Amino acid sequence: MTNNQVIGAIIIMSAVTIFIRFLPFVALRGKKTPAWITYLGARLPYAVMGMLVVYCLKHVNFSSAKNFLPELIAGILVAISYIIKRNTLISIILGTACYMVFVQVVFI
Question: Model's pTM, two decimal places?
Answer without folding.
Answer: 0.58
